[in-house]
Design a protein that fits this description.
single chain, 350 residues, alpha+beta, Immunoglobulin-like, 5-stranded mixed sheet, 8 helices, 10 strands, binds heme C, binds copper (II) ion
Amino acid sequence: MAKSGRLGRVLTLLGLALLLGACSLVEIEDAALTSWKPAGPNAERIDDLFWMVFNIAAGVFAFVVVALIVIVVRFRDRSGAKEPKQLHGNARLEVVWTVIPALILATIAVPTVQSVFDLTGCDPDSMRIQLTGHQWWFEVQYPDYGIDTANVVVIPAGEEACLEMTSDDVLHNFWAPALHGKRYLVPGQFTELRLESYEPGEFWAHCAEYCGLSHSLMRARVLALAPADFQAWVEAQQQPAVLPAEGTQAWEGYQVFVNKGCTQCHSYRVDGEGGNIVPADAFNGPDLTHFASRNVFAGAVLPEYGESREDALRRWLADPPSVKPGSYMPNLALTAEEIDNLIVFLEESR
Ligand code: HEC
Ligand SMILES: [Cu+2]
């Protein structure tokens, strides 16, 4: 065999091995962005459609391959065999092979178009959640409850919640594959996405449109809670922060927070004295009132797998752009002591 032919074969085999290797990732906990495990009615609808189309395509493939093999074997050139009968123009055959594919395409088109319409927009009665894309994190607001949080979209299980999505800067896209397909977040427009999970659970999401340097670090979570737990979560989020007692380390951290520029970008709701901290709009960062109630932060990329929250926070506060290139949270040149105090303060902000 020619050398280049052999190389081609080896490369093909390697390519196939890589491709198959990717399938094994599906079972790993870390590869949670799989669309093979629908966990709600909308994702299930998409999954059903996918399998229907796949099965039809597999049937067509099998038919073509079998027909090809039969023809190749039956009409192969044998010594002494006479040439098979030559046909030209068979109206019946041509009608059949036009009508059958047309029927197959119609079988696919009708449920596809129906699903596209059914999956677009929300039930008008469903709970509204506003999702705003920022480079590189998701802001999550509940207008009915006056809640402002980040990166973790909390919904009640077994009910539809409606994401009303927009962007503060460039195009983003929200994709929680266990619950739905992808949909754009467009500056100056609102798009809707219905989110529903059958059972309580935590689902991974990712920005699915390239949006700048840290696009790959713009993730999110959907946390579906049992309805009673959801109510409890709402009530806890509605509370203003409890300020730490004077003289404690958390209090020292609060002093750093109000004196080191954090409040230029981060809101923090406190009761009474001093009132709410609301930064100028131009420098919007996540609301930190209940920071510690979120299990992930900084676009749901921290803490990294296996890292403690404290280590992750320390890394983040020391130099955000080194964790997320291009981050709009600058390195504020904090001392180690300031960072320690801030961590205690933030981790008490439940
Ligand atoms: C110039 C604006 C700006 C300033 C000043 C700033 N931040 Fe941030 N901060 C941000 C932005 C933007 C993000 C979101 C970054 C991301 O996820 O990509 C962020 C994220 C965070 C987060 C993660 C929040 C979450 O839930 O994802 C924490 C904690 C935080 N900042 C703390 C602080 C502290 C403490 C200070 C003061 C020492 C501070 N920030 C100063 C803009 C700022
Ligand atoms: Cu993005």
